[in-house]
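We keep the chain:
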Amino acid sequence: MAPPHSADPAGEVFTTIVAEHVRRIEQRLPPALADEDDAVHRLRTAVRRLRTVLAVYRPVFDRNEVKQLRRRLAELGDVLGEARDLEVRRADVESVGAAASVSRDARARLVAELDREHAAAHARFVDYAGGLQMRATTAELIRWVREPPRGKAADRRAGKVARQRLRKAVDRVGRAAADLDLQALAEVTVEDLDDRAALDDLLARAHRLRKAGRRLSQGARAVTRTPTKVLGSSAKELGAAGKAVQSSLGDHRDALLLALLARDHAAEAAAHGEDPAPYDRLARAATRRAADALADLPDAVDQLTSKAP
């Protein structure tokens, strides 16, 4: 039996999906401005999900309008990302540092620095949210809910559009995976952190695969949940595999960024005649954690590239 909305016009279904994402952004903005626990992360997730839905299902809407709104959402996401990344780094200093027996003093120094940077990043977000660019973005979101700009696929069946677009998302994962040496990524050592040019190239390829996994995961999520369910269990499985790719590489990225932070502090401590050992210990522990995060990645990639919606 086909899902309830598979035969509905794509324009109607995806307008409802967009409106729901806009509602979540509106709901999550006040707690994020107040810097409530996990609120910045929740708002950033809502912004990313809408941006991803617009990318995956672009033909349902006017191409130029999609491009413009995605640009605005990317700008907001970047501002939120500064604060969120610092929150993650602070939590990782505590968890990885404690597990690796890094001294309390060394962890406290790192946490204090990250707290100062986070306060500044959140203040920049608050300023942005009260500025002209955010007002323009809000007005654009309201307009999209009231008068969605229709595209060439708006009158086609939603189920057919969803299957075709998710197929493209799976292909994107396959291309990104083929362009990344997973073994080299898993074998990055603390010493490799000092060759930033080579590391940056490797991480850029990993980032493309992570984004492709996220695009598939969030694209599938949008069309396999009520009240706009147009695809069933096969699409859910693809979304889960995409999520596994995204999560694995996201954890890997966070761990390596922690290792880089610790490595920089070790060099700074040595330059000032201080003991770099606690920071070296943290860098090595974070690098091991990064490698562990990739354990299930090959299977997730294989699962995706062997299936299609």
